[in-house]
Write a structure and sequence with these properties.
This protein has five helices and two strands; from the N terminus they run αβαβααα. The chain is mainly α. The chain folds into two domains: about 80 residues, no CATH class; about 45 residues, no CATH class. Strands 1-2 form a two-stranded parallel sheet. Helix 1 packs across helix 2. The longest helix has 14 residues. The radius of gyration is 25 Å and the shape is elongated. The two termini are about 25 Å apart.
Length: about 120
């Protein structure tokens, strides 16, 4: 079960010590110091170090965050290709060019015309 108990602001710098103290304070406030066995976090060095100071609590790396980092790094390889494809999509996004694309597809025998997939950035 996942439960969000609180969201709190704390000023910079976000050092391991500051983060650790904020977590301890929240656990004390909710009287759960002896109930927490693990905390899931991103891979930031300051957060990793903060959780180390909360023994015996174990830190679990967020699988979604790690996967997103891997995907982003993998996409760097094709960054130039992605930019070229985006330019091509933009070129064919005007009504005149869409009509030309459909006509060409008909002329070369496509039974069903294909349409461009628009780029939608999501995280």
């Amino acid at each position: 079960m996942d439960v969000l108990l609180e969201i709190s602001y704390f000023s910079s710098p976000h050092t391991a010590r500051v983060i650790c103290e904020a977590i301890k304070k929240a656990m004390q406030k909710w009287k759960i110091e002896n109930l927490v066995i693990s905390i899931t976090t991103d891979n930031g060095a300051n957060v990793v170090a903060a959780i180390k100071d909360l023994t015996p609590i174990k830190r679990l790396s967020c699988a979604a965050h790690t996967l997103q980092l891997a995907i982003s790094k993998g996409l760097k390889i094709v960054e130039d290709l992605v930019l070229r494809v985006k330019k091509l999509i933009n070129f064919f996004s005007t009504q005149k060019q869409i009509e030309r694309l459909i006509k060409i597809q008909r002329d070369i025998g496509y039974e069903e015309q294909l349409h461009l997939i628009q780029d939608v950035s999501t995280r």
